[in-house]
Amino acid sequence: MKPKLFPLSIGLIMLSLLLVGVVSASYPMFHYNGQRTGYVPEDGPQNNTILWKANLGEFIGAPPAVEGGRVYIGVWPDMNFASGEEYYLFCLNASTGSEVWRNPLGAGEGTVSGAAVSGDRLFVGCMDGNLYCIDTTDGSTLWNVPVDTGREGGNWYGLSCSPVVYDDMVLVTSMTDGTLHAFDPDGNEVRTYTTGNTTFAYSSPAVDAGRAYFAGNAVTDALYCIDIDTGEEIWNVTTDGQVRSSPAIDGSTVYAASANRLYALDTGDGSEVWNRSVSASWGTPAVAGGRLYLGTADGVMHCYDAQTGEEEWTFTANGRIDASPIVANDTVYFASNTGTATIYAVDTAGNEIWRYATTNYLQSSPSVSDGVLYIGSDEGSLYAFGDGLVPTPVFPGWSGSVRLAEGETFTVTPFNNESAAYTVNRTSALGALDAAATA
């Protein structure tokens, strides 16, 4: 029998045979890092392709955390208040959105706190006023400690700030008394600094170079700087209205937004670098590449020169912007908070790249990891947007021809795995295709 000629493109064959592992990136806490800069040093999606959408059944107000191929996200009440309804912290597979585990966080009162992941432990606040430590492996509760009052004590928000991990300590702030709390990994409180009066529920502490920055209220609303090791106050600066953002630290400057104004302060002594009037922002500014980005209640995303405070551009969304923006390399991601909340991606010059309209309100700040954008919605869905991944060849492609007579085989051995071998013969799928083509 005449031998058949099989053209083989080994690179293409191997792509279909092997799955190539990639190193998983992470987004371990709210606004990416302890400085709360919101800058992620990797690319995010450049189109609005939905990789998956997970329906979690309740409002999602928390920012997702991503670590080790898993997404951690909590839900809180959707205002239906069905009898016996529980609200969970979920762990989802980052690639598929499938549930890995869920934890009710005590009595299942819900959370809007952004989780902070460190090793195999996760720290998150709950609407019952407790700080929880969760084993990321199986979702079991390792410990919980009361930090603030919850709904039973008249505080609807409970502990809604997002924890930050710094030098084996977990830092949170309680809104009812403006107190900074620091706990060790076993839940023992090792530091407190109390300012005494109510602060904004969602404002979270930021840390850098042994200092913690947080919103406080002794007599008037102020931004505080505390030495983490000693618990001593370094400075405080009175602000025009309640500090609603979390501080964002970039080098020698800390930025924070109050109800009426955006501040840039020197981290050394709190002296003012500049300030700008803003329209009632809840969000934390993102700082990247010498620019600062902040969304406001009038539906405008602002870009400022981070050193001077001069406005460089604005982008008008379809409604108020409450969630915090993030920057992934050269793309700014943010969302409006209206009945048809829209997720936006713009470049650092303010030009729109893409948008996606949802069917409900949106207060969840976005996260980016491994090129995927994760964001929650009040419709109860967690979205994962991505461009799709192109597999990396395991070795440079080779094209050639091999003549196989009936009963002969051809074996391929990849250079990076000599113990593996792939055999082609007349009865293989490739042979079947050839037979069909010549029939």
From TrEMBL:
Q: Which Gene3D superfamilies match?
A: YVTN repeat-like/Quinoprotein amine dehydrogenase
**UniProt xrefs under Pfam families:** PQQ_2
The name under which this protein is listed is Pyrrolo-quinoline quinone repeat domain-containing protein
User: In which organism is this protein found?
Assistant: Methanoculleus marisnigri
Residue span, Pyrrolo-quinoline quinone repeat domain: 91-209, 260-435
